[in-house]
C-alpha cells in the first residue's frame, strides 16, 4: 500500500495490489503510547489489574499505586515526582477515579524526554482538537494544569495529545479492564463506518489489520470509524 493525502481525507492509504480476504494489510508491533481508559477505577499502571486496598502498593517516589505483583513504574512516575509538590495519593478504589484521566497524556508528555522521535510521530497524528468541543478534552487539560507544574508545556500541546488519543485510540481487550493504545501505522488509515478491514491484537499488544473483504488495487484501506461524534457504527 502507499500513503496519500488530500484536503478531504487528509492522510490515507491506498492498495497498490489486489488484496485477498484475510490477508494482513499492516501490522503495528508496538503502540506509540498506551495507558488506562479515561476515568477508569484505580488500576495497576503496569498490568491494568483493578486495584483495591489490599493489593495496592504506592510508589515511594511518585505515589501512583501498582499491584503487589508488579514492580516497574512507567513514564508517569518521573513526570509526577518532578512536577508535583506532593506524591499522588489514591485512597478510594472500586469506582471511576478522576486522577486516571491524565495518565496516558502525562505518559505522552514524559516520552518527549525519553524518545523524542516517537513523541514526534505521536504529535504528527490527526487530533481534530481545533474542530471538536469535547468535555473529556477540556476536563483532562484543566486537571493536568491544576495538579502538575506545566508552565513549560503549552496548553495547545496537551489539548492536541488528548485529541489524538480520542481520534486514534484503540481499546485493547487484552486486560480486564481493557486499556487504550495509539498505533502509528494504523492511525494513517482512513476511518470510516463502512470498513473493508478488520483488526486483531497480538498477545504482546501489537495491532494487526486484515482485509475483511477483497480489496482491489487502487482502493482505500479503511477500518472501522473511531471519530468523535460518529453515531452510525
From TrEMBL:
Gene3D superfamilies: 1.10.220.160, 6.10.140.2220, SET domain. SUPFAM superfamilies: SET domain (SSF82199). It comes from the Eukaryota. InterPro entries: SET_dom_sf (IPR046341), SET_SmydA-8 (IPR053010). PANTHER family: GH11294P (PTHR46455:SF4), SET AND MYND DOMAIN CONTAINING, ARTHROPOD-SPECIFIC, MEMBER 4, ISOFORM A (PTHR46455). This is SET domain-containing protein SmydA-8-like. The lineage of its organism: Eukaryota, Metazoa, Ecdysozoa, Arthropoda, Hexapoda.
Amino acid at each position: 500500500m502507499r500513503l496519500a493525502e488530500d484536503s478531504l481525507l487528509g492522510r490515507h492509504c491506498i492498495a497498490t495490489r489486489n488484496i485477498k480476504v484475510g490477508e494482513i494489510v499492516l501490522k503495528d508491533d508496538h503502540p506509540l503510547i498506551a495507558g488506562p481508559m479515561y476515568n477508569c477505577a484505580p488500576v495497576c499502571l503496569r498490568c491494568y489489574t483493578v486495584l483495591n486496598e489490599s493489593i495496592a502498593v504506592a510508589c515511594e517516589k511518585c505515589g501512583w499505586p501498582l499491584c503487589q505483583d508488579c514492580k516497574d513504574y512507567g513514564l508517569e512516575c518521573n513526570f509526577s515526582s518532578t512536577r508535583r509538590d506532593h506524591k499522588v495519593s489514591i485512597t478510594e478504589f472500586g469506582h471511576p477515579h478522576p486522577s486516571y484521566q491524565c495518565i496516558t497524556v502525562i505518559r505522552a508528555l514524559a516520552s518527549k524526554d525519553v524518545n523524542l522521535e516517537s513523541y514526534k510521530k505521536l504529535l504528527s497524528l490527526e487530533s481534530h482538537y481545533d474542530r471538536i468541543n469535547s468535555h473529556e478534552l477540556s476536563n483532562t487539560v484543566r486537571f493536568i494544569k491544576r495538579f502538575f507544574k506545566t508552565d513549560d508545556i503549552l496548553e495547545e500541546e496537551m489539548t492536541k495529545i488528548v485529541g489524538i488519543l480520542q481520534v486514534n485510540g484503540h481499546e485493547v481487550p487484552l486486560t480486564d479492564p481493557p486499556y487504550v493504545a495509539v498505533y502509528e501505522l494504523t492511525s494513517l488509515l482512513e476511518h470510516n463506518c463502512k470498513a473493508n478491514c478488520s483488526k486483531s491484537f497480538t498477545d504482546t499488544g501489537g495491532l494487526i489489520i486484515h482485509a475483511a473483504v477483497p480489496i482491489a488495487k487502487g482502493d482505500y484501506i479503511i477500518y472501522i470509524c473511531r471519530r468523535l461524534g460518529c453515531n452510525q457504527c
